[in-house]
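Interim report, section 4.2 (structural modelling).
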Amino acid sequence: MRSLRLAGRLAARNLRRRPGQALLLLLTLTVATGVLGVATSLLGSADAPWDRVWRATNGFHVSLTVYHPPDEPGDRALVAELRRRATQLTGAPEVTGVGGPWTHLYGSIQVAGGGEDLTAEIRDPGPYQVDQPLVTAGSWLGDGGGVVLESGLAATLRAGPGDTVTIQGRPFPVRGVAMTTSRGRFPLSRPAQVWVTPATAKVLRELGMTEEGFELQLRLADPDAAAGFLAAHEAFQATDQDSSVVSHMETWRQRRADSHSDLDILAGTLLAAGTLIAILTVATAAVLIAGRMAAQVRQVGTLKAVGVTPRQVVLVLLVEHLAVAAVAIALGLGIGRLLAPRIAATSVTVLGTPEPPPLDWARVGAVAAAAVAVVLLGTVRPALRGIRHSTLRSLVAGPRPPRRPGRLARLAARAGVPLPGVLGMRSAWRRPGRLLTNAAGLLLGVAMVVVAMALRDSLELLDVTPPEPGHAASDAAVTVLYDQIRAVILGTAALLLVLGTLNAFIVATFAARDAARNQAILRAVGATPRQTVTALIVSQLGACALAVVAGIPLGLGLWSLMDGGDLPPVTVPAASLLLLAAAVPAVFAAIVGVPAVLLARRPVAPALAYE
Amino acid sequence: MSDGNVLQARGLVRSYQAEGSPIRAVDGVDLVVEAGETVSVMGPSGCGKSTLLHLLGGLERPDAGELYLDGQRVDGLSETAWAVRRRSALGFVFQAFHLVDELTSVENVELPALLLGRSRREARRRAMELLERLGVAGRAGHLPDRLSGGERQRVAVARALVNDPLVVLADEPTGNLDSRATGELLRLFAELREARQALLLVTHDARVASIADRLLTMRDGAIVAQTRLGPGTSAAGVLASLAELGGDG
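Predicted structure of the assembly:
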């Protein structure tokens, strides 16, 4: 306990003495925790409004649907048999309420100048034990005909009571608008839905609408027993494999999970992005610690000489970084609470106003685990490496001894590469850990840029592909989702590149500090500032080369995993990849050139002062 | 300026800020070094000897005064122009050796030659020749951390000589050497005179200073005495005389 207090005091002093490093770590950690915070707040933010509608409509616990293609009447005998079996189910002892079975008609409704697939559910005016749609405008079915629109369809049509909609080419008055949890919101969920009375249905049949199946909804004594009920009545789903008739049972929880897939996909993409960023933040933390340990090797030696144990040295660093992580976790969760409702509001599937779920331990734990993992992975190993030297060596040694010249540098010298380039290559492999960390950071950024390029091309192709007949509005809704995912991937690529660049800058700054003495010697024997700047940039370019060489194939590999879904397949043009391969080193050189130029501006004599 | 002067300083001044008040590390120094001449600079610690050497080599900029290298004024040169001048005209030997620790002995020695634009083959030949002459050819492929102090200093001397500079500036070159290595280094410096290369030697050691033609004594940033050394005049004797006159060093 006493050593923890001591560690706390030393950590507080370190934070005050190095606010820049602490801020840098806080910034990178907050980017990761912020993205994860948004993702965790977004996940489930449509559940509360869904639950409200489900309760208000006396929503189902178990739903039984029978469907057959409308242009294939199917096996009428089988459909009749399934209807009989469904009715039998209503007598099960667990069942406390029954809705339906309600017959579904298939047809077409005019949406934005095009035809959309339509299901008209035939209902008597009610009321119903299960799934009493929640009327949000106008009135429910009754005398006088007309249709009630599902709320998503009404929003897409911008239609309300008193307006008319065109079904099967003929106008029908809108009686009302209602919400239900028995199907997802249009247009992301297809087909569009209206409710009609048997009298209106008769007219619709005359206009060519055909039966496509029915739905039966049940409420049980115990909602949590829904999955068990399904398992106990699996036979209902077993239909003839040779028939086109499909029967399907579903619990309310399954329907809820499927009802806002756009938000789930978006949150999943953000989770993946946050994880990638967190991985990169490990690199940043590791680079910061490694650089600091290299600079403080003598101080650590002094601490050890007076009796401080390696464990205590690591503990001080851990306490310091965990304090930074705690702030980053709080900021990340706060950012999540702030942004998630705004992002969720763009969803077309939420039944009302989205609400981020309460901050439970699982959500806080997910964000905190990422930040703590970053700190542990980024701190312990480099700190242990830093204190591994013997106490005597720490007290007397300067920077770590150099390695033998690399084969590449020797070949470059023989090939006539200018001297600064050869000198840079000689020192490139001097700190392999930093080089690889730096490369890993940039590699993720490069890979994500490749994915973003492929995604952009694919979505552009999607934009020019005409929508399938009957799917115009739903295709437009999917495009909105793709646009959001594209924005997340582009944003992630940009963040990863920014963090990778930040890493590169930190590494270059430490490299400049390490190289200060050698650079001063070079200048003393006649190297110009430009030559020393070039040597330092070349010494860092290895990381960039590795990132480009490995990052582009990694990005293409990631894209091939994403490819093959709903997106049109594309091949990233070789010219774009070549441009990327050229642009990344150019930007990298400009970034690492900054500390190199600053070093070259410093006078030579102080760096050569007697050690 | 006479034709034989390779290095000349007029009224060189260099000040530092120390605890808020300026301190003149070099205070109006006038100095001439002729070709082939060996000049020792002695004085107590902190008197400005090393700062003067850095100013003469362009490693620091004077606040005032003029500096001529081989007849050309150089105190206003840019960093790049100074670097180019250093390649051919100056060689440095430091107390801490200051070898590039990533380069082997021979690579350290050939570095100034390569910077001057010599071919790799020629630079390597010249570097090996010097290492041979200085008795460290067997260590040509070793990195500096594998060499003894004496070996490192001989490699540093070889590097200073590789471009046949007009002047070698040596800052406490024997400060980190034992007596045997010091003796070897002094023999090397004596050979420089035969090669008509000037040597400016900053040292604490009167025995080392005695190899010079002239001894400059510095105190508080200024040259307070200038003595031509010869048979019967030792650096130690000169310093003792100065101390008797009221000095401390």
